[in-house]
Specification:
By secondary structure, the chain is an alpha/beta fold. Helix content is about 40%, strand content about 15%. It has a domain of about 240 residues: Type I PLP-dependent aspartate aminotransferase-like (Major domain) (Aspartate Aminotransferase, domain 2, 3-Layer(aba) Sandwich). A hairpin with a 2-residue loop joins β8 and β9. It is globular and about 60 Å long. Bound molecules: pyridoxal-5'-phosphate (PLP).
Length: about 475
Amino acid sequence: MDHEDLRSWAKRAADWAADYHGTLRDRPVRAPLVPGAVAAQLPSSPPEGAEPMETIWDDFQRIVPGGMTHWQHPRFFAYFPANAAPASMLAEQLVNAMACNALIWQTSPAATEMEQVMVQWLRQAVGLPEGYFGTIHDSATNATLSAVLTMRERALDWHGLDEGMAGAPILRFYASAETHSSVDKAIRIAGIGQRNLVKVPVDETRAMTGAALRAAIVADRTAGMVPAGVILCAGGTSVGAFDRIADCVAVARSEGVPVHVDAAWAGSAMICPEFRSLWAGVEGADSIVLNPHKWLGAQFDCSVQFLKDPGAQVRTLGLRPTYLETAGREEIVNFNEWTVPLGRRFRALKLWFVLRAYGLEGLRTRIRNHVVWARELHDRIAALPGVEIVTEPRLSLFTFALKDDAATEALLQRINDDGRIYLTQTRVDGRFAIRVQVGSFDCRREDVMLVQTTVQDLLAPCSSVPSA
Ligand code: PLP
């Protein structure tokens, strides 16, 4: 296959993509497969000779789409969305064609400079003040890891990088149990040790309070340990919990401890001014992560980290061997020094396309609709016999359950086997609950209300005949 072949195949792929998206509603959301079903269709060794593209294409159509869970399905209500707006897909096609590696400014000047500008566009869009800079990571996991490593080094006055952690004091980090497991992962990878991530108790709204945070920090200091960082939750994965950001930031500031905020999901909603009270006080944070690849439509991967003092992160993660120097250009930004991996994709282009193709108003309308529809759906689900709301909507996420865990689990299984919608689970104070989050880029009100119809149809195991 050469580039002329690519021209015609790319057109065919574009037609396939349009048909795929146009028929998503006719497909089951979750792949109706048993493990191993796809692998069983693939030869166990690679071909020695070249195969015709026609054969490869036929095999793709035969094996892959039916083996996928359709994340862009308008009735995907599981996890959080990984939205890919059409304009974002177009941008990714262009990035694919250029296939660059934006490791330093010189290797992709447009990628670097657009990344700088897009971070500022997004900063304004979510109402953060001037004075934040930032970068685009692949994932919130890597952004949080970068923040934790930076907080670690700050606490060690940058000695950990050279000397390792063996002789270091015991560093303590603070987060609530509502934060995502990526925080635990970062703490483990950074050599802090899981037991030094203090899970600060939450109040009745599942928020970490300033008072609880202060008590944990003071207790650690008294015990001779070093408080090194606070990670706040702004829209937790389980039930959408928000810590009391302003109070916690004030405590952290007064204790001289830096703050990272995980707003991977809910951060996108902050383009709507009416939701910003949920993270009031966030402008005191040193680092904030927000995933446009979740709710905003700039497809995976696109995770923006805002930083007040990028110098601290660059001092932690940046290395500049001779082969990465750009002669005579000290003032330029080399984004690999802000992140863990050296190689980096041109992720800013899809953000540029999305923000322009829909405008902030277009994106706000979608998010506002999702929040309103989630509330309406919650009311309908709450009215179903035998169903209990476990947590009320936070933005567009709520949970419900039946009277006991076994019945709830069985209902979830029936729902996902049915295929019309896709939901996932969580545990709330030990109770198994079904999560509903509304956020698919192309979903309509009737898609959301189909959740109620489906749950109603499947409530009793014997009444599982779908209504038309
Ligand atoms: N933080 C929150 C609140 C999340 O919901 C998730 C994933 O869903 C993450 C972090 C991790 O995101 P990523 O997949 O970008 O690493």
